[in-house]
Amino acid sequence: MKKVFCIGELLIDFVAENQGKDLSKAKEFSKKAGGAPANVSCAISKLGGESLFIGCVGDDPFGTFLLRILENEKVDISSAQKSDTFTTLAFVSIDADGERDFVFSRGADKELTYDSSLKSRFENNILHFGAATALLGGSLEETYNRYLFDGITKNAFISFDPNYRVDLWKNKEDVFIRKCHPYIEKSHLCKFSLEEAQLLSGKDNLDEACQVFHEMGTQIIVITLGSEGTLLSTAKFSKTIPSIKVNPKDTTGAGDAFIGCLLQQISQHSKFENVLADEKLLTNMVARANKAGAITTENFGAIESLPTLQQLDS
Ligand code: ATP
Fold first, then answer.
1. What is the pLDDT of residues 42-74, one digit of tens each?
2. Which of 218, 3, 1, 309 is nearest to 128 (CA)?
3. ipTM of this predicted structure
4. What are its GO biological-process terms (predicted)?
């Protein structure tokens, strides 16, 4: 089984409880572990895969809380770092229509430093880049770029999720697009939401968007479409794979559960080429990942809602 290195941020989401969209009026918040790459590492581990998280938290109680959650989920945190800067915090309120108000207090996640000892461990393994905060600058961005280079050098399978956050890139979408492009060019697998696919390809039509991404170099493209399932595209075929029917309560983390489940399955194969060449195998993998995403929407929160192997097999 291959190891999956998940690189990026781990932070606290303070979610406003029942107060509508206006954060200025929010009185109560619940503390949740957040950070897409960290969620992905938990999704993999919960399904029996081997995942490692590479990111930085503050040397404070929030950092301790976050790393403890990953440890409880059996994620290898031996390469996680702690810095003197406070743990990154996000405050968010969401109203019934999904409208968000958002305050982001960026701290330790940006301070991840490069660890040269990891390069040899990347050999023939899987690197997953979840880019919600990584491309916003700081030492994390430089480290991120170096690990991408190391991964390519060591023949690792590269996976990329841009994790576009409107609030973080307001009025600088062009910078986001420019910074994502090298990752799309170098990745074997890219996972996009509908909005990300359109933004990063410059095409509204998803078939045209996939063509742009394939021409850039990505071999497998998955575009997650919520209850509609997932569009899967390779150079040979393109199809939408339906999801299962659920009664969603909270869609947070569905995309992370999806990509985590897909990577966990890919990690079981010694040769990526075999996966790519087998349409039926790839289709079944995406169908299973759809199920993982769907199950995650049935409960509140991200990590706590990720499916176990038992739930997924039932
Ligand atoms: P995130 O907001 O976490 O970044 P995302 O937008 O990438 O996620 P979604 O499309 O919401 O991801 O969900 C990922 C996958 O989970 C979907 O492709 C689908 O298979 C499944 N899924 C999500 N929501 C539902 C739903 N309401 N019903 C059935 N399946 C769902």
1. 999 999 999 999 999 999 999 999 999 999 999
2. 3
3. 0.97
4. fructose metabolic process
